[in-house]
Structure prediction request, 413 residues.
Amino acid sequence: MRNVKYARCVRCGKRYEAVPDLTNCSCGGILDIVYDYDYIRSVLTKEKLARRDNYTMWRYRELLPVEETTPDTPLRVGWSPLYEEPRLAELLGIRRMWIKDDGQNPTASLKDRASAMAVAKAMEAGAKTIACSSTGNAASSLAGNAAAAGLKTYIFVPDRAPKGKVAQLMIFGANVISVKGNYEETFRMSAEAIEKYGWYNRNAAINPYLSEGKKTVALEIAEQLHWKMPDYLAISVGDGCTIAGAWKGLKDLYAIGFIDRLPRLISAQSTGCYPINRAIQQGTDWEPMEENTIADSISVGVPRNADKALQAIRESNGLAVCVTDEEILAAARLLGRTCGVFGEPAGVTGTAALKKACREGLIEKDATVVSVVTGNGLKDVANAIQAAGEPLHIEPVLDLMVEGFAARGVTVE
Prediction:
């Protein structure tokens, strides 16, 4: 890989050759991929990129850690829509607002970006089997992307994972292990199995390449905005891989001169589980927390990518905003009714945090903001119904419809 120099530990600085099966540093720290920006500037321009008709995450190959001979993965991952939402901006009291709907990816979440990268690196490593632990979305994204590439998967999920996500796993032919325990216990079991059987490791905070896949969401936002960066970027945070990846992508673009400034990050977590935000708010190291939120995809009490996430938030002079489950459900309704975007609880937590930050005066009224919806609402139908309510159930008599809606304060006209 001519565009990659090496991998470096974010904790101790030790360097490693960027081989396909990298995991953590010997000190336990997370590795970061270091690029040769001089080389990248010599082979990639905005004009060259604009001429490409490959509208997937792989249009940014010069900024990704894959061999030139590695084929694009089979599913169409990336280039999700970026909608400008003037009505939502007006409601929030800010100047301009965009929603990046990453629930439009093949398995309906942003984590397809990481899983596509895992599949590419597994193929480079000659692996036949990939494994991970997940609260749901990483699992289904890995199962789908691996199935399309002809690779076997073993997936470990806590037994609280929503049925919609487990159904995806089974349809994609994954070997699914539902663990009677929390995410930390599930993670430990997956780590033990991966060590024993030598499977390719897709766990996001262990495999440093996965945040490189996730960073493509930021590359797309920048290109879709014609390289004019917003003031803020709001993202839901669980183990920290997504927000760290987005920041890495933005820094890459700044380093090669594609953008001239960096936005501030808004780290969005639930009040039921917020170890990363608590560390930011208190100016301390992170400590484990209980996992008690409906936003299952970000319900991570022991975040494995906390070092990179904390560094990203602090470097960007970012905001750490925590929201209740009720505020998350309200954000799901808001996005659906003003934007026509259907997000799962974890997927809309960024927007919930943005709404709260605007209400509390943390965001300037002339600010421009992008909020990333990281997962589709069909992933968690039970909580979608809790947010939106039940339909009107009546006998087939038209007058009953009018009466039923009147009882809800709705006039039929």
